[in-house]
Hints:
The protein is mainly β.
Amino acid sequence: xxKRKVDQRTHLLASRSYCxxxxxxxxxxxxVELKTKKTxxxxxxxxxxxxxxxxxxxxxxxxxxxxxxxxLYKADVKFIKPVVLGDTLLARAQVISEDGSKKEVFVExxxxxxxxxxxEGKFLCxxxxxxxxxxx
Length: 136
């Protein structure tokens, strides 16, 4: 039996251009695609800044938790291979453990259409009781 698809409940205004396009959201998992663009490039050889890969992975982690008040607490990540202009990336996230409001999410990022992994990491997410900007 396949995973049940669910509606997006978090990060509803995230930029598709810089965070990625949602491919799927299921209970405790997600996949997101990001097409690299010239505005992401940091040098004349077409190297894409790692912050965009991280942003994609973070967005995918948030969607795997999929709660309106989820925030990132910390991340332990590895940048495995460089990303260059023209690459399309695919992030896959899975909630791997839960302890109350804390959710640990494992994320892998691949060059789309290949098994070439460019990034992986564990993201510790926390579900708050209200919006982070409403907390004192």
